[in-house]
Amino acid sequence: MARDLSLGRRTFFAAAAGVTAAAAVPGVARAAGRSSSRARVAEPPIDATDAWAARTPSGEISTLNYTPSMIIVHHTVSENSNDFSRAQAHAHSKWVQDLHMDGNGWVDTGYNFLVSRGGFITEGRHRSLATLRGGSSFVFGAHTSGQNDVGIGIANEGAYHDGATPPAAQWDALVQLCAHAASQYTIDPQEIYGHMDFGNTQCPGIFHDMLPQLRDEVAALLG
Question: Per the database record, which ranges form the N-acetylmuramoyl-L-alanine amidase domain (predicted)?
């Protein structure tokens, strides 16, 4: 299926003054309020939970009234679909939510955001998008044991532990989302990690090897 090219994914960033920054230390919430000359990276298109008809959470969604100190990258170990459509991105988000709620017994999707192989970004756990836009709080997820109170989780559709590489659209969207989150929360690009940095897991597969590139590309957008 042809990919929707109307999103203009490469036009999401614009410079602005007055963005705050703070030194990030893994596992420790940052103190806010330091000035920075970094560019503000505009929000890429993100389909909220209502756009993909997410289920209502089965319990309370907790909001942490401070900013995260890191971004943690995952893969969902789903099929490496060649359907790059928005409809597939929504179907994948529903699959993940069902797995997490029905299989894991969680109140909602564990990840804060998901990036499809076609480059479409969806909100995972409810209220993650609203808090990201606010820039002063974030939603407590269920993606990385011991780190859910200090990091936001971004999961990529597909399985990348057997040598597969992400499609260009997925990679570009991941870079834009990470750069926007880093801008909103003043997270240093060096504080982008993979799930395996915090546990015995193969997640996020090849994305872990690509973390230096991801950090560099995010840093370039931040200026």
Answer: 56-205
- State the Cα–Cα distance between residues 19 and 8, nearest whole angstrom: 24
Q: Which residues pair with 34 in a beta bridge?
A: 21
Cα-only R_g, the chain: 16
Integer Cα distance of 176 and 178 in angstroms:
6
Is the entire prediction scored with pTM above 0.90?
no
Does domain 46-53+62-149+169-222 sit in CATH 3.40.80.10? yes
Pull the structure tokens for residue 2: 């042809």
Per-residue pLDDT reduced to its tens digit, 163-183: 899 999 999 999 999 999 999
Mind listing the pLDDT tens digit for each residue in 88-116? 999 999 999 999 999 999 999 999 999 99
Task: Report the C-alpha gap between 166 and 152 in whole angstroms.
Answer: 21
Q: List C-alpha distances in Å: 107 to 75, 115, 149, 155.
A: 20, 21, 16, 18
Sign of CA pseudo-dihedral 187, 181, 70, 61: positive
